Amino acid sequence: MRRIVTATVNNQSGVLNRVTGLLSKRQFNIESITVGYTEKEGISKMTFVVNVDDDQKIEQLIKQLNKQIDVLKVSDITDQAIVARELALIKVLSNGQVRNEIGGIVEPFRASIIDVSRDSVTVQVTGDSAKIEAIIDLLRPYGIKELARTGITAFTRGSQKSVTELKQYSLLK
Amino acid sequence: MRAKVRAEAEPLRETMSGADVLIQALKEENVEVLFGYPGGAVLPIYDSLYKNPIKHILTKHEQGAIHAAEGYARVSGKPGVVIATSGPGATNLVTGIADAMMDSLPLVIFTGQVATNVIGTDAFQESDVMGITTPITKHNYQVRDAGDLPRIVKEAFHIATTGRPGPVVVDIPKDISNSFTDPKFDEEVNLPGYQPTTQPNILQIKKLKEAISESKKPVILAGAGVLHGNASHDLLTFAEEMKIPVTNTLLGLGSFPGDHPLFLGMAGMHGTYAANMALYECDLLISIGARFDDRLTGNLKHFAPEATVAHIDIDPAEIGKNVKTEIPIVSDAGEAIRKLSEQNGTPAESEQWRAHLSGYKKDYPLWYKEEKEKLLPQRLVELIHEHTEGEAIVTTDVGQHQMWAAQYYQFKNPNRWVTSGGLGTMGFGFPAAIGAQLAFPDKTVVGLVGDGGFQMTLQELSVLQELNLPVKVVILNNQSLGMVRQWQETFYEERYSHSLIPVQPDFVRLAEAYGIKGYKVSSEKEAAEVFKETMNNEEPVVIDCRVCGLENVFPMIAPGKGLHEMIGVKP
């Protein structure tokens, strides 16, 4: 099962190595990982998506991460109401004739064309993984020259209760 | 901001070099002995040590230094402190760091590093110590500013010795040792990411106490966590009051008196039949400071299948890692046992169960076929026990001799047993004996080693010579890598591939080359005579014991088998 785990860490050199080294040492499969600064100086936040066999494994992963001195807090937020976003850059083959067609795909996805050359356009799209998969599928027939995805970054929604009473928004379940 | 205020208040005093700060910081931590080996990148540190001395043991190899520090830490409960240079000095420590990590020993290790401006350029004697040691340390640091040294040293000792103990590496580039700073030694440790839980949750304690009252077949599995928590006495009181039989892990030996009627012996692959059957048949398993290692549990499918499992451990990650746990208690072992004792509750109605287990103890004890002509290794361990009255500190490597020591040297007291459990390191026992002897100069320390393991670190004989340390090196010499040979006999149809080593040095003359008395014994009578003469005197000695070569360690749980499927049980 896929789980989204966030970790608040000290922004020390080597902390990414500690976390990824720990995961690989204990045979956890990382699907994606993102790291960036937070609102607090010296504190970074990591979001990773992992594939685990069962609850016991995810519990072990969280406990092992918690043991790291530079890791301040670890949460498995998969089952909570969360906002999870990913960004993708897609360079698509296009001459002048199909450029408009591509524009027609980009618009409903609220994506944007951020670079144009004689034989290609680069599309930037943000959203959940399903949305990004969908636009990639639509653009594939034109020929994708290059594709780069950031992986998911996520945190819990400001209000847990009202959202969970509605349909729970969870990306990966 | 604070630095600015200080600068205005008084002129900046850059009075101490990084190396001087380090030595001073070690003194602040009351470090009594360092185990180390000098080299280029630690020249400034050794120069400071020359001017401001701390007792320093110069081993002949960095591996000897770190194993000695492990032995020191295991018996004294104090952190072992190691210094080595960059590059090869640091990489020579790796086995010992991994060993200390597996067996939860508090070590603080200082490694030199090339200067900061050449880190990453493949400079002379550069190695990526942070990269190499991250997976095998509790934590590690690279010092980037000499002013950070007092804080880092304080944190390193704090992390190494609290919670679940473990090794901490501090990597110090040479230019940092040489640079000047105005140190502040009085800062408090502030680690928001490191807050080990030492007090048990009282609801879980109540739950366990109720489970004990309801149980008919309880058993306690006591591991090294009981020793780290100084809780042997509390455990004894608790087990007696609650009438619960006790078994030990390999590393937990000594946490419960070996001759106590409630004691079942060691459990696990080469444990006693009574201990393993108790784990198999019990209805309540109380594990205290043990981590359910695969050599203990055997096949997990058959481990304590009927039991409610209560697991007391200071490391939450150990709870539920291998064995499903109904009553998890994250706590220091001593705190948990004392809270359990304070809690009201009736003892287990375990009379029948205890009688049942006593039957196992009586009918299926540890056993070997007596042979008067030969020196049997099991008998050798019993002889050492007799001649040291079971009071010696015994250190071992890994393998047959280790298992025989665990089976036959009935430990009466805690912190007398020093062995490489988790990593299973050959060459550990002898240097560990040196460290243990330094911690307790007046106690008898027996370095019980195999002929294979001894030859991995025997160069440290020169430390015995130099310091006249009265370590008793007893070589259980079966002219083979005994455990490898045993497995080849049992599982590889006696194809003894590279496990027989009939060509050996003359260990007596080898000892004499180091100025140490050497003996060779090949019968029980000779062994008894030499032990009588040497075990309680104040000189080092090397005793080459030519034991019967083809003995096997029994009983045994074969790999993949369950606790109840022991082979080699007394017929």
Mind explaining what this structure looks like?
Chain A has helices at residues 15-25, 55-67, 96-106, 129-139, 161-165, and strands at residues 2-10, 29-37, 43-51, 71-76, 82-93, 112-116, 120-127, 144-149, 153-156. With 173 residues, chain A is an alpha+beta fold. Chain A folds into two domains: 2-76, Alpha-Beta Plaits; 84-153, ACT-like. Chain A, domain 2 (Alpha-Beta Plaits, 2-Layer Sandwich). In chain A, the strands form two sheets. In chain A, strands 5, 6, 7, 8 and 9 form a five-stranded antiparallel β-sheet that branches. In chain A, strands 2-3-1-4 form a four-stranded antiparallel β-sheet, with helices on one face. Chain A is elongated. Mean pLDDT of chain A is 91; it is low at 163-173. With 571 residues, chain B is an alpha/beta fold. Chain B has three domains: 2-181, 3-Layer(aba) Sandwich (Rossmann fold), CATH 3.40.50.970; 202-363, Rossmann fold; 377-546, Thiamin diphosphate (ThDP)-binding fold, Pyr/PP domains (Rossmann fold, 3-Layer(aba) Sandwich). Chain B is 38% helix and 16% strand. Chain B has 24 helices and 20 strands. The radius of gyration of chain B is 25 Å and the shape is globular. Classes of the chains: A alpha+beta (173), B alpha/beta (571). The A-B interface holds A 10, 13-14, 17-18, 21-22, 25, 56, 59-60, 63-64, 66-72 and B 130-131, 134-135, 138-139, 142, 159, 191-194, 315-317, 320-321, 324.
Distance between the termini of chain A: 8 Å
CATH architecture of the largest domain in chain A: 2-Layer Sandwich
What would CATH call the class of the largest domain in chain B? Alpha Beta
Biggest beta sheet attributes of chain A: 5 strands, antiparallel
Order of helices and strands of chain A: EHEEHEEHEEHEEH
- Mean pLDDT value of chain B: 96
CATH architecture title of the largest domain in chain B? 3-Layer(aba) Sandwich
Instruction: Give the CATH level 1 class of the largest domain in chain A.
Output: Alpha Beta
Radius of gyration of chain A: 19 Å
The third-level CATH topology of the largest domain in chain A is Alpha-Beta Plaits
Rg measurement of chain B, Å: 25 Å
The tally of structural domains of chain B comes to: 3
Spatial shape of chain A: elongated
In terms of quaternary structure, the protein is heterodimer
Q: Which regions of chain A are unreliable across 5 or more consecutive residues at pLDDT < 50?
A: 163-173
Please report which band the strand proportion of chain A falls in: under 5%, 5-15%, 15-25%, 25-35%, 35-45% or over 45%: 35-45%
The number of E-state strands of chain B comes to 20
Q: Which fold name fills CATH's third level, the topology of the largest domain in chain B?
A: Rossmann fold
What composes the largest sheet of chain B? Answer: 6 strands, parallel
What overall form of chain B do the CA principal axes indicate? Answer: globular
User: Which superfamily, in CATH terms, is the homologous superfamily of the largest domain in chain A?
Assistant: ACT domain
